[in-house]
Amino acid sequence: MSEYTEITVKDDGPVAVIHLDRPEKLNALTVAFWPQMRDALARLEASGTTRAVVLTGAGDKAFSAGGDIAGFGELEGTAAKRAFQADCLRTFAAIEESPLPVIAAVNGYAFGGGCELALACDLVLASERAAFAMPESGIGLVPGFGVLRGPAVMGRHWTKWMVLGGERLDAATAERVGLVQKVVPHDALLEEAVAVGERIARAAPLAVRVGKTMINRGVDRGETGYSLEAVTMLQETADTAEGIAAFTEKRPPRFEGH
């Protein structure tokens, strides 16, 4: 799987490890990331040897600092923006619906799309240095998947705390509200996440698959239609254009009505 540009995959045992691999950019998620992630996951599912997957970030600072915001500004036209949002939602669905348990090992910043990736995973382990945020409102957007899955994982009010106010959660708070299942020392994170995967790998594969499917029965795929159209609409607004410009120019945004 060496042809990927945004991720690296190590699959020499029952627990595969996928690294988000742009450490120089805090593992920001480009347009190319989403199909690569789906392809890697599909290959691991088809391998016959992989029993669990650990998803983590390369480097020592970030799981993922979120979407590549400069890249958002390069999307031209409603169709391109809708297609991009649909691609992101397909990837979150691929993680949630994978027959393989996917464990997030959050080693630092998990912001925006990085936080949403953690929400899509089955289990989340976090370094004591981890921090979680969905600050898209600061550039005139909302996290299209986070607004859907956040309430089921940590409740409506904590999701509103993060989405409406852009509030950041440290690792201990994220554990308290249910976003994280275990906080571990930073240097032990990947080892502990793989150990959890190995415990799962020793269980009966069919039982694990059926268990994940049954627990996820309340996940409603129909809800993504509203998210797709709402986020596409926001991407067309003057507020989002201003938010992206302010981000790239490293200045406070000047939204309409302020």
UniProtKB/TrEMBL annotation:
Originating species: Actinomycetospora rhizophila
Catalytic activity: a 4-saturated-(3S)-3-hydroxyacyl-CoA = a (3E)-enoyl-CoA + H2O; a (3S)-3-hydroxyacyl-CoA = a (2E)-enoyl-CoA + H2O
Source domain of life: Bacteria
Database matches in SUPFAM superfamilies: ClpP/crotonase (SSF52096)
PANTHER family according to UniProt: ENOYL-COA HYDRATASE, MITOCHONDRIAL, ENOYL-COA HYDRATASE-RELATED
Source organism phylogeny: Bacteria, Bacillati, Actinomycetota, Actinomycetes, Pseudonocardiales
InterPro entries linked: ClpP/crotonase-like_dom_sf, Enoyl-CoA_hyd/isom_CS, Enoyl-CoA_hydra/iso, Enoyl-CoA_hydra_C
Protein's name in the database: Enoyl-CoA hydratase/isomerase family protein
Coiled coil region boundaries: none
